Structure prediction request, 733 residues.
Amino acid sequence: AVQEVFIRLYNKGYIYKGSRIINWCPVCQTSISDAEVVHEDQDGFFWHINYPIVGEEGRFVEIATTRPETLLGDTAVAVNPEDERYKDLVGKMLKLPLTDREIPVIADEYVDKEFGTGCVKITPAHDPNDFEVGRRHNLEEINILNDDATINSLGGKYAGMDRYEARKAMVEDLKEQGLLVKVVPHSHSVGTHDRCGTTVEPMIKPQWFVKMDEMAKAAIKTLDDGNLQFVPARFDKTYLHWLENIRDWCISRQLWWGHRIPAYYCDECGEMVVGREMPEKCPKCGCTHMHQDEDTLDTWFSSALWPFSTLGWPDKTPELEYFYPTDVLVTGYDIIFFWVIRMIFSGYEQMGEKPFKTVLFHGLVRDSQGRKMSKSLGNGIDPLEIISQYGADALRLTLITGNAPGNDMRFYYERVENSRNFANKVWNASRFIMMNMEQALEKTGKDITTPAAADLQPVDKWILSKLNTLVKDVTDNMDHFELGIAVQKVYDFIWDEFCDWYIEMVKPRLYSTDDAVSQNAALWTLKTVLIDALKLLHPYMPFITEEIFCTIQNEEESIMISKWPEYSEDRAFPAEEKAIETIKEAVRGIRNIRTEMNVAPSRKASVYVVSENDEIRKIFEEGKLFFASLAYANEIMIQADKTGIADDAVSVVIPGATLYIPFAELVDIAQEIERLKKEQKRLEGELARSKGMLSNERFLSKAPEAKIAEEKEKLAKYEQMMEQVTKRLEQLA
Prediction:
């Protein structure tokens, strides 16, 4: 496939070999593409140098450069044609310092009149912008560097020196000759190789290139026409900016590994042939001695073909017919230039169609301090170690929870532990359900059956209705690629609604009733809700969900190919939802009161539900069995007024009803008075100590302000606690 694309593009005139400016890495000694160059801000200098005007003794043109060593390759100095300061200089010759050459002054609109001195040295062989200027003015292109960034034989006395060593020597010589005007500190963006970090040298070398003008048009048009969607949409600008300013793509590399370029050269006459295999003889001179180009292709050249080459292209395979174009590409935003854009224009060029409809960009995983993981920092994390310790599901869930498309995330071990704990919660809930299903089978000899609608209790309808809404919301979130929001909803439903509420609500029906119909309805609901919840969770936690799914049912072969849950109006029960939420609010209120009063869970108490509203009384009547269990009640009384309730009863107010608990049933009064008196005595001591310190002039004059403020906070806290204890003792008395 790689060879086929190369030959097709070459025959079409889109691939050519030529001498152009490329990015050269002196350490790796290979060309690299623009996308592999990372621009870093570095502190450097502007060296201001005088270039003498030939024939005008004592007159100079002042230029400013950040790379004085490239002066050896200068072939002109350019000024803006509209710059009145230099109009008389255009066409004149300058003596190039440190050399025996003369170079012309040319006019070109590339020069910014306001930047620097308004005069720019032009080095076509070592700067991409200068290269374009040089082509427009037919300037000579002089490469003054060897592959290892030492000065070559054209550098005169500086030949053989490293580029930075030569820079120092040349600056000293310029100073000695009186041509160095000044040196100004300057922070500027420097291109470095993303792999080894070496400062890249723009350099003219013969390389293989892909013409990008025509292929870029199709890639721009597909986004403009709405055929392609980026998530998040802000990456549209990044994509378009790069394509609209794209240069021809250098695709040859001087590396040992890679797809070798299918070009062959005659050893005799040098004739070049591009083909699928080496010619037996030279088509020009008939020589039988040929050799293949030693360069390899940029790895992204072959990667760009991924959407169709993996499906059997260039053959017309059933897979290619069925799967191309694919639906969604999920990838990191850091390779939008390397891979995404190249797949798009390659897809249009070879297949005549986009390679995918949507690109979902995710961010990078950073360490807990927000730093990019790297070998030099030693802050990388081996995912296999995390999986060994916490499980693959826990790692997957961690990476997607609370994360929005295109945003980086920080990695915390605590979050993986939380995800692992969630997996345990799901596992234990599933075991509980299966255990009760087995016990029911042993007891009745019958499998669980789908209950009649009338057999479902309000609490069953509540959880089915909550699940129904969850299915609708999660499907909508996933359709909009809001994966982090979707999984958080699934997480909250399973942990809170299903495990912490529903399972606790049905336990009395499973344990303490002989009503087989009610038990069947509860078990059917437990199993049904669990299976659909597992399906919603499966994309995020595939392993545990598959294991449970295949164990708890035998209707479907695998969760991977099971039917995705769908919203159904038949499972919408708003009245039951409202009813159970009323009971939940009552339970929360009772639990809060008991916590405030330090009542042990083992201490049961009577609960009176008082409401004039018939509907609310009916809600509590129907939920009496599980409400008693959740509210730690030994008896539930439901009535329309407060008749028979002691005046000291503790109350909990909810919309439409008030719940009362006899005080004496919650607290052993004598024991509580004794405890409170001990607390009162302790607080008296703390108050005396704190007041004593804050009235001590020596402490106030010598102690740090933070210490004084801390002591004042303590005093206020103790006073508040004393007030509460005193009030409580008065109530008990």
